[in-house]
Design a protein that fits this description.
CATH topology of the largest domain: Rossmann fold
Number of helices: 7
Order of helices and strands: HHEHEHEEHEHEEEEHEE
Distance between the termini: 39 Å
Largest sheet: 7 strands, mixed
Radius of gyration: 17 Å
Oligomer: single chain
CATH architecture of the largest domain: 3-Layer(aba) Sandwich
CATH class of the largest domain: Alpha Beta
Number of strands: 11
CATH superfamily of the largest domain: Vaccinia Virus protein VP39
Structural class: alpha/beta
Strand content: 25-35%
Helix content: 25-40%
Shape: globular
């Protein structure tokens, strides 16, 4: 039986395939801290932390940070960078469907569309775990691709030049399953071709509000980016702020 995509995609290919699509993490960390008004020394968990591109800068700003990820490859990269930069981070290899630390965190971060990997029941379970892991009045930041674009059936076909070659991204939305499938293909300058594919469940604002409510959280705001821009149909992102 083949392994699910989220157990295989986060490997040595990740940086070349997805790194060019990422924004400056230092800028994003500054925006998140301001958006959430995080107090100095707050305890944070980065759920799906990958190679620690947000986790480490947050630690260097004085926050007590736990990075959780399923990929040992990504966590090893994160540990190596943290060691080089003398950042103190607790790294935990665990599936977000099972990670729970009751009442431990002031804030939970789910960034760069790290939510929606599973079936509806399991995705709801992830939110339940988040709520249980937050302190009373703790805050949850959920950063997703603009849901309105997916629900409208908008497809993406884009090719960009990156340092290692030409990167093509193709996204298709299935109205029946309400899942988006993304395929990335890199043709490197040396002629080598690498590719990867993943899919996530796309939830409407109303669905997410209901799911968060069932988990014991209430939506406080929805923004169109981490800098707090209005959420509109043309926004690139959907940033949901919820509180326990």
């Amino acid at each position: 039986m083949s392994r699910p995509w989220y157990e295989t995609i986060f490997d040595e290919r990740y940086q070349e395939l997805f790194g060019p699509l990422e924004q400056d993490p230092e800028v994003e960390v500054f925006q998140m801290v301001r958006l959430l008004t995080l107090p100095p020394g707050a305890s944070l968990v980065d759920l799906g932390c990958g190679r620690g591109r947000h986790t480490i800068p947050l630690s260097l700003k004085g926050y007590r940070v736990t990075g959780v990820d399923l990929s040992e490859v990504m966590l090893n990269l994160a540990r190596e960078r943290a060691s080089r930069e003398r950042a103190t981070v607790e790294w935990v290899r665990e599936d977000m469907r099972t990670f729970v630390r009751p009442g431990a965190f002031d804030a939970c971060l789910s960034l760069f569309t790290s939510f929606g990997y599973f079936c509806d029941e399991e995705n709801q379970g992830v939110l339940m775990n988040v709520a249980r892991s937050l302190k009373e009045s703790g805050v949850f930041l959920l950063d997703l691709r603009n849901v309105r674009k997916g629900l409208s059936g908008e497809n993406i076909d884009r090719t960009i030049t990156v340092p290692s070659g030409r990167l093509s991204l193709r996204v298709r939305f299935d109205r029946t399953t309400r899942r988006a499938r993304a395929e990335s293909t890199l043709v490197r300058s040396d002629g080598i071709r690498i590719s990867s594919a993943f899919e996530v469940r796309i939830y409407s604002e109303e669905e997410l509000t209901g799911m968060l409510s069932r988990a014991g959280m209430r939506v406080m705001a929805i923004h169109g980016s981490l800098d707090g821009a209005p959420f509109t149909s043309s926004a690139e992102r959907m940033v949901v702020i919820a509180r326990r």
